Amino acid sequence: MEKYSVLMSLYKKEHPEYLRLALDSMINQTIRPDEIVLVEDGPLTDELYAVVEEYKPYLHIVINEKNLGLGLALNEGLKACKNELVARMDTDDISKPDRCEKQLKRFEEKPELAIVGSHIDEFVGTKENVISQRKVPTTSEDIYNYAKKRSAFNHPAVMYRKSAVLAEGGYSDLKRNQDVDLFGRMLFKGHEAENIDEALLWFRSSDELAARRKSWENTKSYIATIKKFWKMGYSSFSDYAMVAVAQTGMFILPAKMQNWVYKKFLRK
């Protein structure tokens, strides 16, 4: 099978033990990566530097002198990736052992694909404590239509073609929803994608994540992204209006009610 790179971005607020688990999950893939590109996005804590030093033999380290934010940091890392196929990974999640093997097989079967993702199992504390699953559309046509209004991928679980991402300008300089913006632009330009119909990654859920969802910054960013899709002719005005109303409504809801809506209607 084709060789692949892993792309991760690390900043100072990450948890050292979570980073260790994330790295282990990639190093121990059934088909091991050819390289792990880790972007140090600004200065880190001593504890994080210690973990990076421990795993240094496995890492190709890219250093940003100051924190650029996820999107721009990933762009820097992507430039350093030597392989065409790149597996995204976050520094607090855990990939299942055969995740990359299954994605590589899908690319081998369908070389026209630019993105291959999957569902994710959301957990709290340890990966054995799965509380929900985020399912995404699986076929190229369903993904194209779904992404006009909602995120059609689980960003930490995707593998994509470096050339396809760079062809559309890479990640935009956004504080939130960088992946929604990038993948929407790629789909609109005709790049094909699929999601494997199973969860290939354990996604760490937390109160901090719920707080980010509840933030006005995140709400405003998501609405602005779909507005951009409407302006460029991908989403319709009704798609944009629906998202604006739904996102604003979710923001207004009390946190407990918002979490109930997520679990009842947006998760399995």
Radius of gyration: 18 Å
CATH level-four homologous superfamily name of the largest domain = Spore Coat Polysaccharide Biosynthesis Protein SpsA, Chain A
Main β-sheet description: 9 strands, mixed
Number of domains: 2
What coarse outline follows from CA principal-axis ratios? globular
Coarse structural class: alpha/beta
Total count of helical runs of at least 4 residues: 11
Spans where pLDDT lies below 50 across 5 or more residues: none
| Quaternary | single chain
Secondary structure: helix percent: 40-55%
**SSE ordering:** EHEHEHEEHEEHEHHEHHHH
Mean pLDDT equals: 92
Residue fraction in strands: 15-25%
Give the N-to-C terminal Cα separation: 33 Å
CATH architecture of the largest domain: Alpha-Beta Complex
Q: What's the CATH class of the largest domain, please?
A: Alpha Beta
Stated plainly, the CATH topology of the largest domain is called Spore Coat Polysaccharide Biosynthesis Protein SpsA, Chain A
Count the strands?
A: 9
For this entry, give a set of tags.
single chain, 268 residues, alpha/beta, Spore Coat Polysaccharide Biosynthesis Protein SpsA, Chain A, 11 helices, globular
